[in-house]
Design a protein that fits this description.
This protein is α+β, with helices and mostly antiparallel strands. 61% of the residues lie in helices and 16% in strands. It has three helices and two strands, in the order αββαα. A two-stranded antiparallel ribbon has the order 1-2. It is elongated.
Length: 80
């Protein structure tokens, strides 16, 4: 575990590791991220949101397949 005592050390630690978990009373209290790591996380979260919206739209439009059909296709394809 690395202990920092000032902002420069903190900045260096985050830039080196990409993220840092801050603890208080031996409990995880917060996570600090570099700006680059934050942008990656934000982009991933937006990508997931877009995929969920697309899936919800497909459900609303009735573009679904029954699970039994999906499993049958998988069984035939992978012979299990």
């Amino acid at each position: 575990m690395q202990q920092v005592t000032n902002i420069k050390e903190l900045e260096h630690a985050i830039n080196t590791n990409g993220e840092m978990i801050v603890t208080k009373n031996s409990k995880n209290n917060m996570i600090l991220l570099s700006f680059e790591e934050y942008k990656k996380k934000l982009w991933n979260d937006n990508e997931i949101d877009e995929k969920l919206l697309k899936a919800e739209k497909q459900i609303d439009e009735g573009k679904t397949v029954k699970a039994t059909e999906v499993f049958k296709e998988l069984e035939e394809k992978y012979e299990f």
